[in-house]
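Record ATP-citrate synthase ATP-grasp domain-containing protein, 229 aa.
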Amino acid sequence: MARKKIREYDSKRLLKEHFKRLCSRELPIKSAQVTESTDFNEVQLAQKEPWLSSCKLVVKPDMLFRKRGKSGLVALNLDLAQVATFVKERLGKEMGGCKGPITTFIVEPFIPHNEEFYLNIMSERLGCNINFSECGGIEIEENWDKVKTIYVPTGVSFTSEMCAPLVATLPLEVKGEIEEFIKSVFVSVACFFCWLLLVFAGFLLCLGAFRLPSLAFVCAVCGGLRALA
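=>
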């Protein structure tokens, strides 16, 4: 299967678009892409994304390399002026695990939280592996023994019974909501992505007919768009 890595910004845009189209629900994803050509003083920037000047922000490189947090390349709880300084100090430099100058950043709203969940969906020729953990965040690799995995064969409906092992140890007050979220993401992802990794905050936001996890850090890494013939 041909695969094409894509930026976090693009993965979020695609996930939001197709989640709404396929599941009839709007994901609360807000993100802005920043490059060398971005003018932080430009009025149009604030007009296009008004939340940039009305809330605290998160900024990090969007360059398809891992472990940005451990490399000190994720800044939290900044205002727009501080984001501009952070970007300018790192733009065009080779830092962390980036093999080349950093040219692109992603900016998102900062939402304080105490826990994170991890969700990874990877498609194969005959089905999809779904990994889920209640211990998301930058230490996920060190806590891989806590990741639960199921396999969904191609052409088989992803039912609550199949999802049950992933959410078995979740508190009752969030189990049903996160199960519904995983199933909805699977429907959206299976059509376009060959793999998708999500890390989302562990508190809930009322959205549509059911409550969804707040997606402050959704698609922390995403790199598998299907190459369509």
